[in-house]
Write a structure and sequence with these properties.
globular; alpha/beta; about 160 residues; single chain
């Protein structure tokens, strides 16, 4: 069975973003299944409500869909936290980005799809970071601003 891929929050956000050229790629990644973390679900709620202005019903409906397509989201445990500290220190990541990478590693994923981390970087000789929007040159300043303002400042609320 091929290894599942791990989806960072930005993939979830772009899947619901209106008029964003990254939406179709995000939708395809999400539809193919994969693994997400509870952290990404929480970050999605924060961005969807505060930045995209989505009503609670739409947010909850999309969360339900995510959990159907990506069942069993990965929780953050003390082990996840400890591994994230090591990743943050070694690679210079913020703790919240390192937690995403740590959860992906603990899940046995080979690929982490994220726009926020260094495309092509390999973590712990196992996890390769891939920016799914890099090659296509997909950019939307409006949505990028939404995500960067909220997800890249993870936990600063």
């Amino acid at each position: 069975m091929p290894a599942k891929h791990f989806l960072d929050t930005n993939v979830l956000i772009y899947a619901v973003a209106k008029n964003d050229p990254r939406a179709s790629k995000s939708e395809a990644l999400l539809a193919s299944g994969g693994i997400v973390s509870i952290q990404s679900l929480n970050e999605f709620v924060s961005v969807a409500r505060r930045k995209l202005g989505m009503p609670w019903k739409e947010v909850k409906d999309f969360l339900d869909l995510i959990c159907i397509l990506c069942p069993d989201p990965v929780p953050i445990s003390l082990d996840t936290h400890k591994l994230a500290l090591a990743i943050a220190e070694r690679h210079g990541y913020g703790i919240y980005d390192a937690l995403i990478a740590s959860a992906a590693l603990e899940s046995g994923c080979k690929t982490l799809y994220s726009e926020d981390l260094q495309d092509g970087q390999i973590i712990n000789r196992q996890l390769t970071i891939r920016n799914p929007f890099h090659d296509a040159g997909l950019k939307s300043a409006h949505t990028e601003e939404l995500v960067l303002d909220d997800v890249s400042t993870r936990g600063q609320q």
